[in-house]
What we know:
The chain is of the alpha/beta class. The chain folds into 2 domains: 3-65, Orthogonal Bundle (Helicase, Ruva Protein, domain 3), CATH 1.10.8; 76-276, CATH 3.40.50.150. The protein has 10 helices and 9 strands. Helix 2 (21-33) packs across helix 4 and helix 9 (216-224) packs parallel to helix 10. The model has no long low-confidence stretch (mean pLDDT 97). Bound molecules: glutamine. Glutamine binds next to loops.
Amino acid sequence: MTIKKALFLGAQILKKITDVSFLESEILLAKVLNLSRSKLYTSENLILSLEQQHEYQKLLEERTTGKPLAYIINKKDFWNISLDINKNVLIPRSETELLVEEILNRTSEKERKVVLDLGTGSGAIAISLAYERSNWQIIGSDKSIAALDIARKNALKYKLSNISFEQGDWFEPFQDKLFDVIVSNPPYIKSSDPHFNGEIRFEPIIALDGGKQGMDKLSGIIRNAPRYLGKNSLLIVEHGYNQAKEVYALFELSGFKQIDILQDLAGLERATLGYLS
Ligand code: GLN
């Protein structure tokens, strides 16, 4: 079977699970053949070995179970980095880039900042910031040792010396520390949310489940953050599209000023930030 035929058949099989079936079949075949996607086109008539054909078929079948593509290829692009991921970390979402973008827009290259990324997972936010701001000091924390293994590996890949990681439950490892920026994409989905039966069932529940109303972790972070923030500091959190009002109220109650609700590219209220003077 040629590459061209394999792509066509793969796309047919993936149609029932994704709208971008051709693209996904390219990505899977590129992985099997260890070629870039563009190279597939210049080698359209190349014949797959039987072994390659079987491997490709196996990946297509995995994908049809609903397993996210990112967990099959163990990679996900975020901001301008490429992260290694596995089932122990949430797949970084494009809407989370909003947090990185906003922090960069609201600070200048020259100011030196110490930043804490709470619940760093794959390290997506922390590593993007460390990559963009070489003079900052970034700390990523997570309760999950398996997540920290991946985050450290990702940081190492980019040879970043301005980032470190701590294991622990939210603020627990940072008792006497003060930060200029605290950022977090905590679990914020309601325990009863039907989405837990969809593709997110493949992702770690610890990274998604925010308790009965989805607010448990968000409210803990917003209430406790002032104790760990220095002068002229910033807190920014991601939240569900219908949690902005409640999050805003929590920011106000905790003494934050110049509070802003931010919309993602889909126009949903996806993050909130506030300053502490
Ligand atoms: N944005 C993710 C989703 O909707 C949830 C991420 C989170 O809980 N932090 O699947």
